[in-house]
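Justification of computing resources. Each target in the renewal requires a structure prediction run like the one illustrated here; the chain below, 433 residues long, is used simply to show the kind of job we budget for.
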Amino acid sequence: MFAFGLCLQSMTAATAFAAQTFTVPEKLTDGAADYQLSRTPGKVIAFDTLGNLHVVYWSGVQVTVPATFPNFIYHRLRPPGGAWSPQVSIDDSFIAADKIGGRHPSLAITPDDKVHVVWHDHRQSTGPGSWIDNIEIYMDSRPAGGSFSATDIRLTNSTAVHLGDNGFTPQLAVEASGRLQVAWYDFNQDQNASDIYLLSSDLSGVFTPASPVATAQLTDASTRGGAPSYSVPDIAVDAAGTRHLVWVAGFAAGDDLYYASVAQGSGTTTEQLLATAAADFFDPPKIEVASNGDVWIVYGDDAPTPNSAEDVILLRKRSGQAGFDPPIGAVARAGRQFAPDFVVDDLGLVHLVWVDKVASVTSVMYGIYDPNAGALTREMTVTDFSGPWARPSLAVGADGFAYVVFEQDDLSGGDIWFAVNNKSGTRDWMAYP
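Resulting structure tokens:
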């Protein structure tokens, strides 16, 4: 099970780890709808300072039509040692009396324990435009111990002269000050080529409602010949307020991987190509800033054979460095290792979850990559049977336990599952050699 051939000296730690297990996965949803996590699920699960675990997800089908095929954004929480609350629909997305809804939520929790959720919403769309001709970014918030409001905040306002001004898959990040940052991709400038957009709140986490989309544009397709489209960004913020973004150039498997950083107060950046033919629109990269200022990126590497022999790759840009270190094959072996998510803890250890497919067996896996050892030194299975698992997302609690949500992606529908490492926190592992 240990993919990198740990040396004899570390077997004591490996033996201790082998005794640890995850709880039997708990199905959070009832199969009554097609429940899904966000396309970029790195920011769908998080703890507040009281130890409550929050999760967001959505339901819907490919066709969005008011009343008959609406979408819903949901929130649930799990208090320390308690049970999950019932799901609550967040979005108040209606056209007249008909529910229409939104997709692909992302959450962030500010230091005052206020939960903020963003998503892309169809309520500005029209019937002649098949309900996809003007998709805007919306947000709702829940104060600590309170409820989400009955009125959502519209963050963006189209400035396009064409139909098809669509903003998609917003990702939300929070600074220590409480300032919020949201990144998404949008066709506002060019209906044939999307760009990356970035919007900042004030220091209290309040956005200017319905900001003109054009003022949030970060990249410019016209400077790259009108193509490719930039899509599915993820965002992280460092202690200085610098925004770090990663995204995919295109809408398929085997597309290019890009990175950029944007200083606080700046609206311009220079994108950096990190890998060619490696990224996947359906398996977007994720980005984190460690407590020491290092920037980390994780992605499922599609090169050179998309969707057949992927590996989990880590990229690290050390604090103060201009560029990234060489790629790290954190999980690289036979079969497919894809859809990774990660957390870098305050010890510098990289906690990973991913989907692992070997022959006909598909599992959700969890492991620890130790940068000092240069190896995946811990690994175990989250799921207790093979299934159509997708999009795992990870949070690490103050107790050091790993909390994982993941999707069951059936052709006839979908469900959301949850499991937690229930034996020993990661800090206990540090007692072993």
